[in-house]
């Protein structure tokens, strides 16, 4: 699932919960779904953070090597 889709669905669920649009019978199911969406969003963000950190580390290593050569 794409982050934007998961986040949009999570926002919708939260809005429905806050406004009382979810029936009590559905609340447990919706809270479980919200928890799954939070986990999915967190996983994407964690993976993206790791990718960005690797890119920055590679750039720093390249700059360091370039400086050492000159």
Q: Can you describe this structure?
A:
The chain is mostly helical and 70 residues long. The protein has one domain (3-69). Helix content is 90%, strand content 0%. The protein contains 2 helices and no strands. The radius of gyration is 20 Å and the shape is rod-shaped. The mean pLDDT is 94.
H and E order: HH
Oligomerization: single chain
> In what range is the share of β-strand residues?
under 5%
Mean pLDDT: 94
Structural class: mainly alpha
Helical coverage, percent range: over 70%
Radius of gyration: 20 Å
The number of helical elements comes to: 2
Number of strands: 0
Shape: rod-shaped
- First-to-last CA distance: 47 Å
- Domain count, please report it: 1
- Uncertain segments: none
Please describe the topology of this protein.
Elements (H helix, E strand, L loop, with lengths): L2 H17 L4 H46 L1
Helix pairs in contact: 1-2
Concise structural overview:
By secondary structure, the protein is mainly α. The protein has two helices and no strands.
Overview features:
mainly alpha; 2 helices; 70 residues
């Amino acid at each position: 699932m794409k982050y934007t889709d998961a986040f949009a669905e999570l926002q919708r669920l939260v809005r429905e919960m806050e406004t009382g649009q979810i029936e009590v019978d559905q609340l447990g199911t919706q809270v479980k779904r919200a928890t799954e969406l939070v986990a999915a969003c967190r996983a994407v963000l964690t993976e993206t953070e790791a990718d960005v950190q690797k890119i920055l580390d590679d750039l720093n290593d390249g700059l360091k090597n370039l400086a050492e050569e000159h």
